[in-house]
């Protein structure tokens, strides 16, 4: 397996091209939102013994905001919840998905149909 590598790009035509490419891709990106029906269906199908049914609407809203890049504190503030409540809901989602990291949770949500991309309204 090759070693990780990095490339330093200084100001010039290559950097300008890379910045423009990033901006073009960023502008075409779609926000990821949790799809409640698919999430509930997948979660119930693969439930570990002893866990309640599946993620509820608030769990899925928490997940959507986390996938948008918000911190736990920002999610709590936006939804009017306590920080510990958000952390408990994230832990429960991770248990439902059978994962140990938040990155895995995001991957699981996308791979198993918990999410759907939607174009912004307006």
Weakly predicted, low-confidence segments? 117-122
Task: Give the number of domains.
Answer: 1
Give Rg in angstroms: 18 Å
Helix fraction by DSSP (H/I, runs of at least 4): 55-70%
Question: Average pLDDT value?
Answer: 78
Q: Write the element-wise H/E pattern from the N-terminal end onward.
A: HEHHHHHE
Shape descriptor? elongated
Provide an overview of this structure.
There is one protein chain. This protein has one domain: Arc Repressor Mutant, subunit A (Orthogonal Bundle), CATH 1.10.10. The termini are far apart. The protein has a two-stranded antiparallel sheet with strand order 1-2. The chain is elongated, with a radius of gyration of 18 Å. Helix 4 packs across helix 5. It has 122 residues and is mainly α. The longest helix has 16 residues. 57% of the residues lie in helices and 5% in strands.
Question: Summary?
Answer:
The chain has 122 residues and is mainly α. It contains six helices and two strands; from the N terminus they run αβαααααβ.
Keywords summarizing the entry:
122 residues; mainly alpha; Arc Repressor Mutant, subunit A; 2 strands; two-stranded antiparallel ribbon; disordered C terminus; 57% helix
Topology:
Layout: H1 13-28, E1 32-34, H2 36-45, H3 57-67, H4 72-79, H5 83-97, H6 102-111, E2 115-117
Antiparallel strand pairs: 1-2
Helix pairs in contact: 4-5, 5-6
GO molecular function, one term: DNA binding
Domain HTH luxR-type: 52-109
Protein name: HTH luxR-type domain-containing protein
């Amino acid at each position: 397996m090759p070693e990780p590598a990095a490339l330093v790009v200084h100001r010039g035509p290559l950097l300008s091209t890379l910045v423009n490419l990033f901006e073009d891709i960023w502008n075409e990106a779609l926000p990821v939102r949790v799809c409640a029906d698919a999430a509930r269906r997948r979660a119930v199908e693969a439930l570990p013994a002893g866990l309640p049914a599946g993620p509820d609407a608030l769990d899925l809203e928490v997940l959507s905001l986390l996938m948008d890049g918000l911190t736990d504190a920002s999610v709590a503030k936006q939804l009017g919840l306590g920080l510990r409540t958000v952390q408990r809901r994230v832990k429960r989602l991770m248990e439902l998905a059978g994962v140990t990291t938040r990155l895995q949770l995001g991957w699981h949500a996308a791979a198993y149909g918990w999410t759907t991309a939607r174009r912004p309204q307006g």
